[in-house]
Amino acid sequence: MFYLILAIMLVLFYIFVAPSNIKGTMNVVAAVFVVVGLLITLLLGFLRILQSPPEMWLVAGMVMVGLWAMRDIYFLDKAEKTHVTSRRRPYRYR
Questions:
Q1: Rounded distance, CA 45 to CA 52, Å?
Q2: DSSP per position, 35-82
Q3: How confident is the model at residue 43 (pLDDT cuts 50, 70, 90)?
């Protein structure tokens, strides 16, 4: 509770009393706090993902292997087709 009151007092000081040279410094400090908060959130989210069941990791691995196989199939050498222009098909789809 003490830190909440202190934070409210600092915010009120920043809004109403702080001169412009202190506001620049406080902006940098606030940016550092935001970056550190985002990094902590990212780390905790990563740890939460690591705690997921092994079946999820198996599914992710199988999806990656499947996508890699489809990519390899797409990049296989294609045989060149010879087109016969004199022969027409009986039906023409539009």
A1: 11
A2: HHHHHHHHHHHHHHHHTS-HHHHHHHHHHHHHHHHHHHHHTSPPPPPP
A3: very high
Number of Cα atoms under 13 Å in the Cβ half of residue 94 = 0
Which residues lie below 8 Å from residue 14, measured CB to CB, with a gap of 6+?
23, 26
90: tokens are 């009986």
**What is the DSSP code string of 4-32?**
HHHHHHHHHHHHHT--HHHHHHHHHHHHH
- Reported as a single tens digit per residue, the pLDDT across 51-76 is 999 999 999 999 999 999 999 999 98
